[in-house]
Amino acid sequence: MKRAAVLLAGLLGIGLAHAGATARIDASHAWIRVLPGTLPAGAYVVLRNDGDQPVALTGADSPAYGMAMLHRSTQAGGNSRMAMVDALTIPAHGTQALAPGGYHLMLMDAKHPVRPGDTVRITLRFDDGDTLPVDFIARPASALGDQGQP
Q1: Considering the domain boundaries, does residue 147 fall inside one?
Q2: CA-CA-CA-CA torsion sign (70, 39, 150, 63)
């Protein structure tokens, strides 16, 4: 009996030792803006870090898309620009939103048609090697937020 208790304690300790960023990061309001034809889709989500250290989102992948890249849209002098970024920091005890007009995931090369109402699994990757699978709801091109309202 004592041996079983020691084994169980050891297994629990291993589980806790492997708990990393994903144990501290929570994702909410995850949605995708689906555009017509073969145009890339934008993915948006709010990330909350309950940990004591900042964590950086460094990438993503999805079985539904051939490529996912972290981008940032900006406005300057009446011009819109979009650039790829290497990482997005989620501050300790803070949030970071991927939202239209700012940071977002650009999803390219859909492997099958994604339609409004579909659920798409995207796995977020962090700088410490941890990953977080998140289900994103597909919304129409006219959507401005995760509720699908234009």
Answers
A1: no
A2: negative
